[in-house]
Amino acid sequence: MHRRSSAFCVVALIAITTLATLVPLVSGGLPKAVASTPNSGTVSAASPTVQWHESAPLNGSAPSRRNQTCVAGGTPCDDYMLTVNRDGIPGDAKLSFTLESSSPGQVNLLFYPPGCSGDASSTDTCYQVYTDQGSKMNPANGTYLLRVACMVCAGTTYKATATLGPLGQQGAEGQAGDGLRRARHLHQQARPRDREHLRADGVDLNRQR
């Protein structure tokens, strides 16, 4: 009697384990893309910049950039959840993001706004695709999915950055850079005596930008 009970317990355990494995397949459930490191962050007036990188070297390909290709095999995608909070930023705000990857490998950055699903079962085309950089004007407060997807990857690593700030401040920095570039051009074209006048006016001609 004891032996029969033990045998029944073993059979029942195997059946439960098998059922647990099959349920996601029957219900249509699919694994999600791998999460990045860290897997989430927030940009705001108080904390304008976040950075993240691969959780493990990326391998494989998601050439059509569809959600399904991120779980088709290998690790061709990395997901990062970015929360945007524009409160406290006066006027227009700009969300900028950059992506740097190692060689060999070619990656893109997929930008999913709030409400745009990145699940494997979804056929949404509401996301946008960027290469190494991009920006959004006045993004709504909320949580965005930023997915790094491989075109072709073989042990590829990456570093991504997102920055939120007032548009006026970023524009002023751009104007300052333009002024410095013009001053360098004048320096290159000027005679030695004129160059001394530029230095006397307080222009740092050796500064890089």
Present the secondary structure layout.
Elements: H1 2-26, E1 34-43, E2 49-53, E3 58-60, E4 77-84, E5 93-101, E6 105-112, E7 128-130, E8 133-137, E9 142-156, E10 158-166, H2 167-189, H3 192-200
Parallel strand pairs: 1-4
Antiparallel strand pairs: 2-10, 3-9, 4-9, 5-8, 5-10, 6-7, 6-9
Task: Report a brief summary of the structure.
Helices cover about 25% and strands about 35% of the residues.
Explain what the structure shows.
The protein is an alpha+beta fold and 209 residues long. It has 3 domains: 30 residues; 137 residues, Sandwich (Jelly Rolls), CATH 2.60.120; 31 residues. It contains 3 helices and 10 strands; from the N terminus they run H-E-E-E-E-E-E-E-E-E-E-H-H. The strands form 2 sheets. Strands 1, 3, 4, 6, 7 and 9 form a 6-stranded mixed β-sheet that branches. Strands 2-10-5-8 form a 4-stranded antiparallel β-sheet. The termini are far apart.
Helix content: 25-40%
**CATH topological fold name of the largest domain:** Jelly Rolls
Gross morphology: globular
CATH architecture of the largest domain: Sandwich
Total number of beta strands: 10
Distance between the termini: 84 Å
